């Protein structure tokens, strides 16, 4: 299946506003956005650039190294594919040739400056010295904020599959199991339910004191009665990410554990309900911060959520400096974390679709009303 996810009318409008005659992208995320295919070796080998060129008339040309031509022609949704000889020719030689062919050697060209190295940027400028190079990073950041229907469908599948994998691990878990065993079970479950299509899987399974370590992965610590458990998974299917966190307790929860979970749950519910068109990201951050403080909790970091899509973190971000106004079609990973000081880090995270009506929790397999109990 060849995916076409790029929102070309919006992209061209953004390019026009930035005064660009063409845009050159090189990151695996934006190459995927314009081509519908992610070349994994470009992630693993940073010099093996896979590039997409979008012109102001909406035409797309791909430039890839010769040994990736076969998979690109098989899976990408773009017909115009050029190649370069890796280790012999610079990938920018192919880009310059395309731009010259299209009469754009003296045009204003956007380049993904956050990803393209200074060496490659200078190389392109030397090859088309009459061109005016500028950044196109914000053009693509802005375009990708509102998801198309195929993107929403992929994100829904990612969210539900990830939630199912976490639930499977929690329902199977018992005292004495190690964190690593639960992580392995989640990974195996994702592979099974996605028929091998879930990729880029990482996990976080932390119990007891390990919960207080941000981005702890998993280890050989065995679950013990009375432990709180924080469990999360990041995974992607058809190129789109999900990132969820859930909480559980081994054995019957104490009053303190139940009370703090309910506080964190209510903070999350209110944060989700505020994800509506017209809300500013910075105001959403301030409201969640006030909620956390009102229940006597503390918090970590200056981020209570972010958009998710081709990349794990996309714009907008629920943080103090982001004044982006939410629109229908955005998908936000909501995660206003609540810390019970010196004891537990309550972290719930859900993927939420912003709509013209009520927000829709895409990660809807789990019932968050009650703290999950591992018997």
Envelope shape: elongated
Strand order of the largest sheet: 4-3-2-1-5-6
CATH topological fold name of the largest domain: Creatine Amidinohydrolase
CATH class of the largest domain: Alpha Beta
Number of domains: 2
How many helix segments? 11
Q: What is the N-to-C succession of helices and strands?
A: HEHHEEHEHEHEHHHEEEHHEEEEEEEE
| Mean pLDDT over the residues | 95
| Helix and strand composition category | alpha+beta
How many β-strand stretches?
17
- Major β-sheet profile: 6 strands, mixed
CATH superfamily of the largest domain: Creatinase/methionine aminopeptidase superfamily
How much helix, percentage-wise, in residues?
25-40%
Low-confidence stretches: none
β content, as a range?
Answer: 15-25%
Alpha carbon gap, first and last residue: 43 Å
Radius of gyration: 23 Å
CATH architecture of the largest domain: Alpha-Beta Complex
